[in-house]
Amino acid sequence: MAELLKDQVPGLSVEEAFDMFSAVAPKGWRVELIEGEIHVTPPANGEHEEIVSEVTDQVVQRRKEQRIRSYTGIGLFLPGASVSGKVEPDIVLAPKGSFDDQAEYHDPSAVLLVAEVTSRSTAGNDRVKKIRGYARAGIPVYLLIDRESEQAVVCTEPSGEDYGAKAAYKLGEVVPLPDPLGFDLDTGRF
Hints:
The protein is of the alpha+beta class and 190 residues long. It has 4 helices and 13 strands. The protein has helices at 2-8, 14-24, 46-62, 123-136; strands at 30-34, 37-41, 68-71, 75-78, 85-87, 91-95, 105-106, 113-117, 141-146, 151-159, 162-170, 174-177, 183-186.
């Protein structure tokens, strides 16, 4: 996509093309820069949003630490993911006040967990490219709700380009989330 735009506008960098796509994207569309590639994603379907909403509700109800908040629509700047990685996870868990500035993309250092719910158009990024970016950024927990494989995968112990520990659960099972969350996520409610 960026290559097409670069051919039409000589000298346009990927970052400049990303900024252009972000500025003109229709409401609800997500524009991300992952490992140097621009990805434009249409609004999610209802099932996707039901899962995001259920995870958010369970976090609010079951969190041990009351300062933890569940955010949707938060952009994260992951420079380790590429020259200039800019992503918008489906869910970000972080202490209250972590994103109380005017920035569109935020430093991920306060993030405790990111969660992605796969869609047909984004599943490859969620399973491969984003896991590398989140691990490189040192995000402690990556929760992947993979609708196609009907699994919830909890990735912990970020190291280099991957997570050292991964535990997969069939959707419908109870999924233990590590501290500081320290509660069980009931995927049977999805």
